[in-house]
């Protein structure tokens, strides 16, 4: 069924002291998912190829990101060294909703 969201997938990255290379967003009321808004060209995340804008961050290293603020996810990613495992799910249309001018977002660069 094309209306169903894709299955979650686990993506493992080797963090070598640099930022992973994506921007996270979440609405300012702190409900809804943490989304990948943009992937920086040439970054670790871009070179890996396992992410795309509109991916929802479900967990980081096994810790659920449900109901967590975007700054918390950002700190988890920035403080992790070595390998990091993210569970993500693509959410069709989620970024379109974020472009609504009445939809305010909290944003973080990871």
UniProtKB/TrEMBL annotation:
Signal peptide stretch: none
Organism expressing this protein natively: Meganyctiphanes norvegica
Domain PDZ stretches: 10-92
Protein name: PDZ domain-containing protein
Coiled coil segments of this chain: none
Pfam families: PDZ (PF00595)
InterPro entries recorded: MAM_complex_regulator, PDZ, PDZ_sf
